[in-house]
Amino acid sequence: MNLTTLGLIAISFVTTPYMWGGSNAMKGLDCSGFVQKVLEEVGIDPPGDQTAQGLYNHFVKAGKQCQIGPDSLLFFGKSPSRITHIAIALTDEVMIEAGGGDSTTKTLEDAIKKEARVRIVPINKRKDLLDAFKITY
Asked: What stretch of H or E contains 117?
């Protein structure tokens, strides 16, 4: 797998614990906190603490809809107004996400028990992919 700069940065977070609402890599990250940390490293993190829905709304307005591939943000949910998860595509088949947890994952012990962490998984592991947006930096 040939990785882009964004992909290499994202992979540096692998095994970071998942923490609901987490935005601190030392304590834990949720899906949007993880993506924002990666975007921050390449200088394109939108201002403020964004949810997956907030990041979707930001990038939809930017008009960067695309095919799935390296450096694509992947948005999951029930509809464009109900985005519940975000991940980063490393290839057209593999993504990296902060996953495995939920709103009850609030401590390191919770994350360990649920095996919730930043991890690399197949994109098709989830069945609720709604959109992808190519990141340029």
From this structure: strand 117-122
Q: Is the pLDDT of residue 13 over 80?
A: yes
- Positive or negative: CA dihedral 38, 44, 3, 99: positive
Q: Which domain holds residue 70?
A: 5-134
According to the model, what pLDDT value does residue 2 have? 77
What length is written for the chain? Answer: 137
The CA distances from residue 124 to 50, 83, 89, 121, in Å, are 25, 17, 11, 8
Find the CATH number of the domain harbouring 122: 3.90.1720.10
| Mean per-residue pLDDT, 84-104 | 97
DSSP one-letter code for 25: T
Q: How many domains does the chain have?
A: 1
Question: How far is residue 39 CA from its own chain's centroid?
Answer: 10
pTM: 0.94
Q: Facing residues of 29 across strands?
A: 18, 23
